[in-house]
Specification:
With 342 residues, this protein is an alpha+beta fold. It contains nine helices and 16 strands. The strands form three sheets. The protein has a seven-stranded antiparallel beta sheet with strand order 1-2-7-3-4-5-6. β4 and β5 form a beta hairpin.
Length: 342
């Protein structure tokens, strides 16, 4: 996600959507009554026939729909402004927001939680290596915000009958270079891909690093372009975020088992802990952010904002998270504390 413009006084933020996770964040922060401006299409009567016309409209948000692992956010609401000639003001409409689109969001009040969530998403950049390998060549690339940096692009000794160990030696060479870059660059995960079985041989020498393996047509720059167009990179980022939530939950369960007093759950208890500045990590199931009970929803949002204001971290737990039901069974609102308050 890229912030193109933010006018705090007018409550207006313009954003460019870069990936699926950006759409998920907007699903979290867009509330009923917010206004959005975006490009859309709508069926409009043109004499005896109806045509789908592209246009820019301003919509007052009623609710949003997000389907996990898709590239679309549906924003439902009432049209506040649109080209006069179409006569559609006051009508219901749905904006389908996709990766690559731009949107303007207008809020009466931007909470610190909402702003920090967007800024963190803008800054978020998983340190990942993309490595493409084949029996006779390999390429190592580093995704960066400004583009892809090629770190290594080399040929390997061609396998032959006289030197039986060449394939294994080549695999060790590639693995050692991967591990060297991983150590010097603080790499968190490696995406290893290739057209044949050589990638599995290389993977055998990469035991102490988080690894994803995929297939690609070649270990060249065209193969790199191919892998960059796939959903796997977004999936890796999403997995990593879910992994963070899982680690927090493991600490929570460990502290509950030991009865350390460093875990609290339930709205009133978490609220009290947040006011004391005791909350280090807060897990919130997504259902609480879309409750039909507006008063309850506002209370949850105030608690989240209080935690963020006092340097705690709020993690939203989606329904497809492996810890969703554990958190829900603990009221859906669970905090890991810095210190005991009772």
């Amino acid at each position: 996600m890229k912030i193109l413009e933010f006018d705090d006084k007018r409550g207006i933020m313009k954003l460019h959507i870069e990936n699926e996770d950006d759409l998920w964040i907007l699903h979290i922060i867009l509330k009923k009554g917010d206004r959005v401006i975006a490009k859309t299409t709508r069926d409009v009567s043109m004499g005896r026939e109806s045509r789908r016309i592209p246009m820019i409209i301003k919509l007052q948000v009623e609710h949003t729909e997000f389907q996990s692992f898709t590239s679309r956010l549906r924003i439902h609401g009432i049209i506040l402004d649109a080209p006069e000639r179409f006569g559609i003001k006051g009508s219901h409409h749905t904006i389908n927001l996709d990766i690559g689109d731009e949107i303007v969001i207008e809020k009466d009040h931007w909470s610190k939680f909402d702003i920090e969530k967007i800024k963190r998403q803008e800054e978020k950049h998983l340190k990942m290596l993309i490595v493409l390998v084949d029996f006779d060549e390999y390429l190592i690339a580093l995704p960066m915000k400004q583009g892809i940096r090629i770190l290594a692009e080399k040929s390997l000794r061609t396998p032959n009958k006289e030197e039986e160990n060449i394939i294994e030696e080549n695999a060790k060479e590639v693995a050692n270079e991967i591990l060297s870059y991983a150590k010097s660059l603080g790499i968190e995960v490696v995406l290893l891909a290739g057209p044949g079985p050589f990638k599995e041989i290389v993977s055998n020498f990469l035991k102490n690093i988080k690894l994803y393996v995929d297939s690609v047509s070649s270990a060249t720059r065209s193969g790199l372009n191919e892998i960059l167009k796939r959903d796997i990179i977004d999936q890796i980022s999403r997995d990593y975020e879910i992994s963070e939530e899982t680690k927090v939950m493991e600490k929570i369960m460990e502290n509950l088992a030991k009865d350390t007093g460093l875990v609290t759950y339930g709205k009133e208890e978490v609220k009290k802990s947040a006011e004391y500045g005791a909350v280090d990590k807060l897990l919130v199931i997504e259902d609480l952010l879309f409750s039909d009970n507006e008063e309850e929803r506002m209370e949850i949002e105030k608690i989240m904002e209080e935690v963020e204001n006092k340097n705690g971290r709020v993690l939203i737990v989606p329904k497809d998270s492996p810890i969703y039901y554990e958190v829900r069974n603990l009221t859906g609102l669970v905090a890991l504390l810095r210190f005991r308050i009772n």
